[in-house]
Fold each of these.
Amino acid sequence: MLTVRNLRKTFVTPQGSLEAIKDVSFQVEKGEIFGVIGFSGAGKSTLIRCLNRLEEPDSGQIFINGRDITLLAGQSLREARKKIGMIFQHFNLFDSRTVWKNISFPMEVARLPTREIAKRVEKLLEVVGLVDKADAYPAQLSGGQKQRVGIARALAMEPELLLIDEATSALDPLTTRSILKLLQDINRQSGVTVVLITHEMDVVRQICHRVAVMEEGRLVEMGDVQEVFNEPKSKTTQLFLQQMIFNSKENDKNSSSAGIERAFGARSGPCEGAVLIGEVNRYAG
Ligand SMILES: Nc1ncnc2c1ncn2[C@@H]1O[C@H](COP(=O)(O)OP(=O)(O)O)[C@@H](O)[C@H]1O
Ligand SMILES: [Mg+2]
């Protein structure tokens, strides 16, 4: 469904140039939830923003359903973008618009008939569980409710591809779980293909089918979620794993088997406590 080949992106700033994406290639099947995990600054957001050309890649190809979107411009790019929904970490809602009006926005831009817009908004409000909040403004909503509006808005144009950039990073663990469950239900029911960016291993574990690990602009490993985390090859993957074991031990001091066995049924590696977290923090910036 999505094929990315030899993608490169360099930022040129007064301080010099920075290669944010270095020859990245991957493929995502239709209906798949594909995760990209990496620490802060790895290039995840740049990568996902290239997929809908919010960011212009320097070179490489991005095929969506067989069409190379790096070759599109003007009206054909706008048409292609309608089929790509995006969900952001900080929701990016219009504060002066109600929930209803936030969800209807992309459909207004696309000049859908008023009756069709109303029909879709009503349905989306049900899907995301916000029927009673239709007339509320974003300021009157919790973080989780705001993200539900962001999800409904991203689905409004019935996308074939959903890009999700750290959708739950601003949310507490309980809300995170309910948002991930919602995204999983949507994927199962609509068959929408999902590319999901995160720095949280739990997110990958909960809903991704496959995962790629990103480090300094490169995908350093890729595969089924279980495979990658059972046999971590890169330093970054090992750090994620150790971080999760550490977090799990912190949460559950009674259990010596910790989270990794619960998560994957795998053998657990050594946990070096504070030293490890120091290392993780250094990577995370
Ligand atoms: N618009 C920009 N101009 C210059 N540098 C940027 C820009 N956006 C991102 N970068 C740099 O590119 C690298 C990757 O950033 P980003 O894609 O945001 O990483 P991540 O989402 O994994 O945290 C970082 O070093 C960041 O500072
Ligand atoms: Mg980012």
Note: Strands lie at 2-13, 16-28, 33-37, 59-64, 67-68, 84-87, 161-165, 193-198, 210-215, 218-224.
Amino acid sequence: MSSCRIRTETSSRADGTLRADAPSANVQQTPAMSDVRITTLTDGPLEVDGEVSIVAPDGTVIRETSKAYLCRCGHSGNKPFCDGSHKREGWTESSS
Ligand code: FES
């Protein structure tokens, strides 16, 4: 989800009132607070909640989803996703 804020310029008229000028030349996009929440699970992956695109370094979209678990232990055979290997490896937050 994204939003756009349109900034209008104002100028003073001779009578002292303000006039809003057409925003066509002054459209400015600003990032909005995302609805995505990322939670670090104890001794496990990053839990991603919210509409996201997970993108490879070359820009290829790997997955568009509203829920994902991303590996942070480095042991997954399916990076960037968690495949449960953190448990098999006995990975803990304090072991990294
Ligand atoms: S966090 Fe689960 S495999 Fe890495």
Note: The chain has a mean pLDDT of 81.
Amino acid sequence: MLEKQLLHIAQEFGSPVYVYDSEKIISQYNRLTQAFSKVKNLRINYAVKALSNISILKLLKGLGSGLDTVSIQEVKLGLMAGVAPENIIYTPNGVSLEEIETAAKLGVQINIDNLSILEQFGTKYPNVPVCIRINPHVMAGGNTNISVGHIDSKFGISIHQIPHILRIVENTEMTINGIHMHTGSDILDIDVFLYASEILFDTAKHFSNLEFLDFGSGFKVPYKEGDIETNIEEFGKKLTKRFNQFCKEYGKELTLAFEPGKFLVSEAGYFLTKVNVVKQTTSTVFAQVDSGFNHLIRPMLYGAQHNIINVSNPKGRERFYSVVGYICETDTFANNRRINEISEDDILAFKNAGAYCYSMASNYNSRYRPAEVLWHNSEAKLIRKRETMDDLVKNQVAVEL
Ligand SMILES: Cc1ncc(COP(=O)(O)O)c(C=O)c1O
């Protein structure tokens, strides 16, 4: 999006505000499906956790996407967006049997990642086909918080426990219709994906009623200037060849599924904030914005780097700034960043604000969560109102003291 469009949106809707460019979401979706165009049955299940606004889910549904969900609430959001239950996969971790039963009754594809629930669910519902999430024991991902397929991770059923899975399946007479893995996020090296895929193929050979193989996600997108990204096109060519060969060996045209979050929405998002104060100290110049890690936690949580641009002064002289928020503890978005000269009231845009930004926002410091705007067909549409004082207190119960 152009700087002047972002500036207009901040002027029209106020700040802080999240903006999503539908064109970028569409082009990323098309890029991924194009990379796998030689797979007969391809399914993209957008990972709702990345950005769960219903209008975004509707946009993706319109493109032909299904959904990957991790909570019963995400399942319900998907259904509210009009996505058919059979196009929703539910991949929870460590939830109760009751929650999984509720999801099964709504008709979504269940994906189970532990032996205890597999046995209980299979015993009660032998006629509901289930997908199994394996733990391939592969260390991959941009940082430890988002590396989830290694031996010490809580996710998935170990590939060393396949005999136990098979025993449960035999005893309960349940049907396993899919095998799934997700090894982490921000994975650059396609050889890591291909290596883990071999483990998925090896696992799949043990199950005779499969309909799909789900390779999860974790594609890396560029965050910083000059950053490299997962080469989706090359990965598409290599995995397609291997997948089609596996289907021949297996004797059935299976569906190849992915569940990308970041790849589809990260670069489509911008977070617009206003500079309240420019503060010179003995060591730096702080630009203090009208937001904080309550609205965008990734820099403080993961050390994530979001590019920041000054959309009010895009041609100004570049200077060095530490961009910080208003939360009453260390609240740093960026240190020593080269940004076009900043004045108070300027609007700063944080890039890559589509994935894991609004969806991780909170009310910490009793601040309102921001508004969300969709930039679609050259028009800015409000898709979530900024919260108000009523939202902060609506569930509080005042007692007589
Ligand atoms: C099970 C599962 N699938 C898909 C995703 C999406 O990953 P990404 O945003 O890296 O594409 C995640 C992210 O945490 C996940 O846990």
Note: Residues 47, 50, 68, 91, 182, 185, 216-219, 259-263, 355 surround pyridoxal-5'-phosphate (CB under 6 Å).
